From TrEMBL:
The keyword Repeat applies. This is Pentatricopeptide repeat-containing protein. Gene3D superfamilies: Tetratricopeptide repeat domain (1.25.40.10). Residues 817-890 form the DYW domain. InterPro entries: DYW_dom, PPR_At4g14850-like_plant, PPR_rpt, TPR-like_helical_dom_sf. The keyword Repeat applies. PPR repeats lie at residues 116-146, 147-181, 248-282, 283-317, 318-352, 419-453, 454-488, 489-523, 590-624, 625-659. Pfam families: DYW_deaminase, PPR, PPR_2. It comes from Dendrobium catenatum.
Length: 890
């Protein structure tokens, strides 16, 4: 039989020379040399006894004795080999994973007595199983006849090497040539479709399985279930699961994994419990599926509880379990807990692997725990982990983030085979330390050494430049990416957006966000989490709605952190209704959800709604934390429920809560609103820690509200000591001294303040009109001059002029000229003239409102039927029907 397919010559093959006279090929080389040498001699020498090639039986004995190399070396070119012997030799090459011996056998293929497709298939299988897919493919492609076993051998080889696209391509060719897969081959092809999420080919295979009658085979059914699970088609996965007559552990693992893959961890856990109820005990793999899923969705605490539960069920966690939870805790900002778990692992029966050590070092790098990182470095040296590139890269990252660049450079320079992460970590370290020049040198050095810079490298450069306020360089690198063939990913845009936000330029960030929507890489969850909080102000309320609309329109599945961010931002931008609507439709709520909503109600002065939410939160069994208690105190303060607030304070002390400054400030506000000023002051004196700016500022508010000049002066003095260079506080202090009757020249005290740069910016506000933000200053006359309705402007100004009968100490007003119309009043009039049909006016002011402006806003809200929202440095004022949400306490 002619065999035209590829023949592979073995390396170092010895070619037998041709001699004259011709010598039989069966005579050994030693005998040939003797004969050749004797041909020139006068007297022929006697021939030694001929040594023949071992027979097939002898070859088989050598194989069974484990002497594969000897058996293959004994083959002579051209000597016939029995098919059975040749197949046994090929199988031995597979068993011993010896591709070199296989190549020698391949060169002897023409000597096979009865070559057939089965022998050729075995040759393909040998190459494939020994990892030489190139030669396997060459033999396969040159075969004239391919049967099911041939296709199976080639597909199996590609599958073992994770070449899933080739598996799918081979399947399509196979079907076109009229060969159908059997029940053993189908799972391999289905696995390939699942791994590359090729749902189209997967559905074709599903139909073919039904037509061929293999759906009843449990391993085939499990593979189809796994396909739909990995492709995210949970409906079909559930249908397949319900139709399977026999559900083994693999079946349950697949359906549980499907629900985990789609983020439905609660349903996955129900299936897990159902599996146990039906008498099938979960294996280690089952537990790890659940644990990994809870980690990925940001719930490492639940994953840790599951690990403890699996131990109680007699399942010992393996290194994957430990590493998974340690990594999950670290990624979810529970880094101290992750390090504690690593220490616990070191005392268990499971030894950390390089991945575990690398995760622990990364945790230390995030927290900048240099001491702990050095200990892990020593642990790695002791256990041989420092030879692992993953651990070494983590050490470079650790020392870079801990500002130990010399140590990072030392490790970096001794690494022989650096990977892309090594370079990126070192560049990131330079950028973090502000050495942009060194980072750029390393960036260029990569190209010089022929090391291809990936998208992460470029992102590190962009992020580093913009964090160091070198925006032009950042934008230049961002624009250059496409030129050099690097496609921007979502992280590239996110680096730019977060950098703009870090530098305080929310407008540039929002423009970049809009451009991102027009490109190929759409905003993801990280983008939304970055951009949404920047809109948490009154003049950006329309931006929040635009971002929310994009999320709904794009089909982006918002997770709980995103929804919580929207709730918080809606509240702070003055849209409490949208925040409540979003909160009420949440399927699940965590502490952040409840705290954000309760704080939002308090911010808007809705004390009853806040207290109702608190009661609902308690009924759901959630444990209140310090943020919740602080909101409770502020809610009680709005209704002057001092005794209720004091009970909360005592409860927190009994529970040994670590009370922060925000809580003490809330308590001072509680007493101040009820005009129990001395109790507020006594609480400050009894604080175990020194009061900060917020606490003294609350006392100043309470003193102003009660008209107590002495305590107001005391509060201002302490504020001045905390911020001695703050000219506003200095001016406040001088005004208070004048009110107290001290013999000082107030005009001279105000003179340096008025001549300072801060005076030009003092008492300004921002208002939004038709998606445009206007900045209005108290001493700015352009608002009136730009108005086309000057008469209307003057009429409104006269109409809203009110006689203020407030008894509070209006210190801020003393800083502005008496004949000036304050900026928020100008903004209100500007809005009334420009947009007479508008129902809502939104203003942000950079200092506390004065009593006249507060009274003006109340009057306008009643006379003109407008909702007016003004956010000053003290609180959010929501004016409606002549009343303010602050209840005249600010």
């Amino acid at each position: 039989m002619e065999n035209p397919f590829y023949i592979c010559k073995p390396k170092n093959q010895i070619l037998i020379p041709f001699f004259k006279p011709k010598i039989p090929s069966k005579i050994s080389r030693h005998a040939q040399n003797l004969i050749a040498a004797s041909s020139e001699a006068e007297t022929p020498l006697p021939l030694p006894p001929q040594t023949r090639r071992p027979g097939d039986r002898q070859l088989l004995r050598l194989i069974h004795a484990g002497k594969l190399q000897e058996a293959v070396s004994a083959l002579d070119s051209g000597t016939p080999i029995a098919t059975r012997t040749y197949l046994s030799l090929l199988q031995a090459c597979i068993d011993y994973d010896s591709v070199e011996a296989g190549r020698l056998l391949h060169s002897s293929f023409p000597s096979v007595k009865d070559p057939n497709p089965f022998v050729e298939t075995k040759l393909v299988s040998m190459y494939a199983k020994c990892g030489d897919l190139d030669n396997a493919r060459k033999v396969f492609e040159q075969m004239r006849q391919k049967n099911l076993f041939t296709w199976s051998a080639m597909i199996g080889g590609c599958g073992r090497e994770n070449r899933w696209e080739e598996v799918v391509d081979l399947f399509h060719r196979m079907v076109l040539e009229g060969v159908n897969p059997d029940a053993f081959l189908l799972p391999k092809i289905l696995q390939a479709c699942a791994n590359i999420e090729d749902i189209v080919t997967g559905r074709l295979l599903h139909s073919l399985t039904i037509r061929l009658g293999f759906l009843g085979e449990s391993h085939v059914g499990n593979s189809i279930l796994n396909l739909y699970a990995k492709c995210g088609d949970l409906i079909m996965a559930n249908k397949i699961f319900d139709k399977l007559n026999v559900k083994d552990r693999v079946t349950w693992n697949s359906i549980i994994s499907a629900h985990c893959h789609c983020g439905q961890n609660d349903d996955a856990f129900k299936l897990f419990e159902q599996m146990r109820n039906e008498g099938i005990e979960p294996s280690l793999i089952t537990w790890n599926i659940l644990i990994s899923s809870y980690n990925q969705c940001g719930k490492p605490t639940i994953a840790l509880d599951l690990m403890k539960k699996m131990e109680s069920c007699g399942i010992i966690p393996d290194v994957f379990t430990w590493t998974c939870i340690i990594s999950g805790l670290s990624q979810n900002n529970k880094i101290n807990q992750s390090l504690d778990l690593f220490r616990e692992m070191c005392t268990s029966e499971v030894e950390p692997n390089n991945m575990t050590v690398a995760c622990a070092i990364s945790s230390c790098a995030t927290l900048k725990y240099l001491k702990n990182g050095r200990e892990l470095h020593g642990y790695g040296i002791k256990n041989g982990g420092v030879s692992n590139l993953l651990v070494i890269n983590s050490l470079v990252d650790l020392y870079s983030k801990c500002w130990k660049l010399e140590d990072a450079e030392r490790i970096f320079n001794v690494i022989d085979k650096k990977d892309i992460f090594t370079w990126n970590s070192m560049i990131g370290g330079y950028m973090q330390a502000g050495y942009c020049g060194k980072a750029h040198e390393l960036f260029l050095r990569m190209e010089t050494l022929g090391f291809r810079r990936n998208v992460v490298t470029w992102n590190v450069m962009i992020s580093g430049y913009i964090q160091n306020k070198e925006e032009e360089q950042a934008i230049e690198h961002f624009q250059k990416m496409e030129v050099v063939g690097i496609r921007k990913n979502a992280a590239s845009w996110n680096a730019l957006i977060s950098g703009f936000l870090h530098n305080g330029d929310a407008n540039k960030a929002f423009r970049a966000f809009r451009q991102m929507q027009l490109g190929s890489e759409k905003p993801n969850s990280i983008t939304i989490l970055s951009i949404v909080p920047s809109c948490a102000n009154l003049v950006s309320a329309w931006k929040v709605k635009e971002i929310h609309a994009y999320v709904l329109r794009s089909g982006l599945r918002p997770d709980l952190p995103i929804l919580n961010s929207f709730i918080d931002t809606y509240s702070k931008s003055g849209d409490l209704t949208s925040a409540l609507t979003l909160f009420n439709i949440l399927h699940s709520r965590d502490h952040i959800s409840w705290n954000s909503m309760i704080a939002g109600c308090v911010l808007h002065g809705c004390s009853q709604a806040a207290q109702e939410l608190l009661n609902r939160m308690k009924l759901e069994g959630l444990k209140l934390n310090q943020s919740t208690y602080t909101s409770m105190i502020r809610a009680y303060g709005l209704d002057e429920l001092v005794n209720d607030g004091k009970e909360v304070f005592m409860d927190m002390k009994d529970q040994n809560f670590s009370l922060g400054m925000e809580f003490y400030a809330a308590m001072v506000e509680l007493f101040g609103r009820s005009k129990r000023l001395m109790e507020a002051y006594n609480m400050i004196k009894e604080m175990p820690i020194a009061p900060d700016f917020a606490v003294w500022n609350e006392l100043l508010t309470a003193a102003r509200y009660c008209g107590n000049v002495k305590l107001a002066s005391l509060a201002t003095e302490n504020l001045s000591s905390l911020e001695p260079k703050n000219p506003i506080i200095q001016a406040l202090s001088s005004s208070l001294q004048a009110i107290c009757g001290n013999s000082i020249d107030v005009s001279n005290m105000k003179k340096p303040w008025k001549e300072s740069k801060e005076y030009d910016l003092y008492s300004c506000c921002w208002m939004e009109d038709r998606h445009q933000v206007y900045t209005i200053f108290t001493n700015d006359k352009t608002v009136e001059s730009e108005s086309t309705k000057l008469v209307e402007f003057s009429r409104i100004a006269k109409e809203i002029k009110t006689n203020n009968s407030d008894t509070r100490l209006d210190i801020e007003e003393e800083l502005e000229e008496d004949d000036e119309v304050h900026c928020e009043r100008k903004a209100i009039m500007f809005s009334l003239v420009r947009r007479p049909s508008s129902k809502v006016i939104r203003i942000i002011k950079n200092v506390r409102m004065c009593a006249k402006c507060h009274g003006t806003a109340k009057l306008v809200s009643r006379l003109y039927g407008r909702d007016i929202l003004i956010k000053d440095t003290k609180c959010l004022h929501y004016f409606r029907n002549g009343k303010c949400s602050c209840k005249d306490y600010w």
